Amino acid sequence: MAQAPVSVTYRQTLKPGEVETVFDLLLFRPLAYVFVRLALPTPLSANGMTLLSILAGCAGGALLASQDLTDLRIACALLFLYAVLDCADGQLARARGTASRLGRILDGSSDYVAGCVSGAAIAIYCHERMGLAGVALALGGLGSVMLQGTLFDYHKNRYLRRSGSRYREGDDLEEARAELGALLAGGAPSWRVLLARVYVLFLGIQGALGGRRGDPDPTPEEAAMWRERITTLARAWAYLGPSTHILLLVAFTVGGHVVEYVWLRLVAGNVVLAVLWAEQRRRERAISALRPLAA
Q: Kind and range of the H or E element at 2?
């Protein structure tokens, strides 16, 4: 097991600040670094940390079905732990230099696994409060959270590629397809092939939702324009991601206001999504119009 040198610093475990929220930088990342320091001398891998986060997220998510306020507060504690561990896995991988595509797949899937468990539990909770209308509301909220998180992830990775960042987190669809072909040709285990197939499908859906396919590599001039014109939007997209979702869910749920949180993500979250999507398209069109001048 590769272990990081004891001199690894907190800053070395972070992502670029342009794709993080203030919640990440001031709350979740510092707490996650405590777990990273504890894990460094042990055999616990970044993927193992991801599995621990999934367990915490699923346990906390399942408790959201309860009408008991004590259970809901336990759910909040577990979901908060999930968010911290969800940050810690990537930080541990960066500290050890062990980041991998498999790790990115597992880390990305953790949000959807915990999210689906939470969404199903919230549907049960809302059904007890509102009947079938509550189930419809909860499903609408779950779909909104997933759509918002997926588009945040897409635009985060797109910004990192187009702005010329040295940091890479996501993969191109063609890269993922090439790896799937290599796994099939090399007789990889069935579970690994299945993960790769799901990842290819996810990247295809993500690209379709984002409205972009097969971007050429940016020129240095175009990368500079992305840094100048898109950085503020990249920061704004981050607030539709998992850290905001968990923090708001915990804040509302600790007082028993689960239904109000669902309405917030269904209405306000989608309004913010629409505004960001329109502004992203406008700024990208402006950059494309200037591309011949920069060439």
A: none
* CA pair distance 228, 56, nearest whole angstrom: 39
Q: CA 61 → CA 139, 158, 229, distances in Å? A: 15, 30, 38
CA distance 27 to 261: 21
Residue entry with tokens 């939007």: 233
Cα separations in angstroms, 286 against 86, 158, 280, 293 = 36, 16, 10, 12
- The span from the CA of 99 to the CA of 85, in Å, is 16
pLDDT digits (tens, 9 = 90+) for 202-238: 777 777 776 555 566 788 899 999 999 999 999 999 9
Structure tokens of 174?
A: 């063609």
Q: Token pair for residue 235? A: 């920061």
Strands (E), the chain: none
Cα 177 to Cα 193: distance, rounded to the nearest angstrom: 11
